[in-house]
Design goal:
Helix content: over 70%
Distance between the termini: 26 Å
Number of helices: 5
Order of helices and strands: HHHHH
Largest sheet: none
Strand content: under 5%
Structural class: mainly alpha
Amino acid sequence: MAVSLSPPIAALYRQVIAEVPRLPDIGRMVFERGTVALQEAIASHLARWSEAGALRIDDPRSAAIAFVALCQGDLGIRSRLGVLEYPVDEHVRETVKRAVRIFVAAYRA
């Protein structure tokens, strides 16, 4: 989360969004190499936890998408709009703790 909320990454997203009308492939590339790669890595972990009986997850990919969204909360959009207060450590910690509580409540085995 700290990396994805960093000013350089926020600036990258702003630039990509600005360039997508001219270069539509750039949006796809950033999405696939960033967002999708992260979701797939998390889905892999969730599948293992489900197989081990720790969680009840029928669709690890969808669960990973939900988990990432919960972990981001409003921090991602605040970062991209330049209204996120730094340092973000405490904001990230609180948001991720809340995300884990919600996620575990939804997927507890």
